[in-house]
Design brief:
The structure is a single chain. By secondary structure, the chain is α/β, with parallel strands linked by helices. The chain contains twelve helices and 16 strands. It has two domains: about 200 residues, Medium-chain alcohol dehydrogenases, catalytic domain (Quinone Oxidoreductase, Chain A, domain 1), CATH 3.90.180.10; about 130 residues, Rossmann fold.
């Protein structure tokens, strides 16, 4: 494959400002794989980074971490891919050597964030050796690049579901029906036979939640008064997917004694979550922090994608060219859609 000397890539200059620039084409080093991006995916993390910055996305710098493409070039000792081979993957991997990895807390490995790769909103992406070794996979012809790029958010959802003790769970509430909440809705039947309900806003998302098996589904604006038939309801498991402080509080309020709250939606640095300590103590409520994913979660997410049983088309609203990335961010900021595919060519 003939490669250029420069490529087009999005650079997050500062909050609210993205530029499309010509930058030098990266060359793969030992163990690395250069990927020609066919599709990148813009979602909630990108929206937050664009709006207010993100602790794991330096500025100015490349942006984008969800991708699918084909192998463009291989560094010495790279995994056994072939140039031109369709691939799918994620942007990070644990080292498998540190104390946290030894304890199988792979998502907390310090190398996960320190050695991640950003820049999927560009024409090429150089995958680090450890990521290529653990979290880069062949992509079958049956899976489109758009759908393959869903691997990363799906791995995050798989990780969250793996943190929950599903024994004796009879009821689940998905709080927040964005892309993550709707992925939870689709995957929950693979983990539990419990009754599954949802809360969210925007008519299309409520309809998708019902289609994906949540029942009942309430329209709920975080921080507003609760619908009458929801006011007294409580659940064994609450999946917090709003990423808002009020959502964290409501998730705690909705949980039953002995229940579990999965705090998936991240908050800005410095946020403080007030907790009723009497309930926490005497009702033995478990609050579960949830960050990132492990290589095992990625492998499981890939299995879900390849099984062909998920409704993937509904999870991507449109495909726009790279030049329109600022428009993509605007739409996401206004909740105009769940996720957008980006074509860098």
């Amino acid at each position: 494959m003939k490669l250029p000397d420069v490529m087009r890539s999005a650079v997050l200059v500062e909050p609210g400002r993205v530029e499309i620039r010509d930058v030098p084409l990266p060359r793969p080093g030992p163990g690395q794989v250069l990927v020609r991006i066919e599709r990148a995916l813009a979602g909630g993390t990108d929206r937050k980074a664009f709006a207010r910055g993100h602790p794991q996305i330096p500025m100015p710098g490349p942006i984008g971490h969800r991708y699918a493409g084909v192998v463009a070039s291989l560094g010495p000792g790279a995994p056994a891919f072939e140039v031109g081979q369709p691939i799918m993957g994620v942007h990070s991997a644990p080292c498998l050597q540190c104390d946290l990895c030894r304890k199988e807390r792979w998502s907390l490995c310090p190398h996960v964030m320190a050695e991640k790769v950003l820049g999927a909103f560009g024409q090429y992406l150089c995958i680090p050796a450890q990521v290529a070794k653990l979290n880069l996979f062949p992509r079958p012809a049956s899976l489109s690049p758009d759908h393959a790029a869903l691997l990363e958010p799906l791995a995050c959802v798989v990780h969250g579901l793996a943190l929950i003790d599903w024994k004796h769970v009879e009821s689940v509430l998905v709080l927040g029906l964005g892309a993550v909440g709707l992925f939870f809705a689709q995957l929950l039947p693979s983990y539990t036979r419990a009754a599954r309900a949802g809360c969210g806003r925007r008519q299309r998302r409520l309809e998708l939640a019902r289609r994906f098996g949540l029942d009942p589904v309430w329209e709920l604006h975080v921080g507003k008064d609760l619908p009458d038939d929801l006011r007294q309801r409580r659940f064994d498991v609450v999946l917090e997917c709003t990423g808002k402080l009020e959502g964290w509080q409501q998730a705690f309020d909705f949980v039953l004694p002995g229940g579990q709250v999965l705090l998936f939606g991240g908050l800005p640095k410095g946020s403080v979550f007030p907790v009723d300590c009497t309930r926490l103590h005497y009702e033995e409520i478990r609050l579960l922090g949830d960050f990132h994913f492990s290589h095992r979660d990625v492998a499981r997410a890939r299995e879900f994608l390849l099984a062909g049983q998920l409704e993937l088309e509904a999870m991507i609203d449109d495909c726009l060219p790279l030049d329109q990335l600022p428009e993509v961010m605007r739409r996401l900021a206004e909740s105009e859609g769940l996720q957008y595919a980006v074509n860098p060519w």
